[in-house]
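Support reply, case 0932

Customer input (verbatim):
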Amino acid sequence: MSSTFWQCEQLRAGQVYSRMLFPSKDQAETFMRQMQQRQPDIFWRLQAVAANAIWN
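Our regenerated output:
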């Protein structure tokens, strides 16, 4: 298991609308590209998150 997960946040009007976790950066970027094609007016933010910050 990786010690880093990748978090995608969907932003609407400056507020986080939804949040998803992915085990790899490639999977997260693929997801973001697909979503941006379907909803180009919605912003997405990608960031690395340490696994110990999610589960104790």
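We compared this against your earlier run and they match. Two observations from our side: Strands lie at 4-12, 15-22, 43-50. The chain is about 25% helix and 45% strand. Please reopen the case if you see a mismatch on your end.
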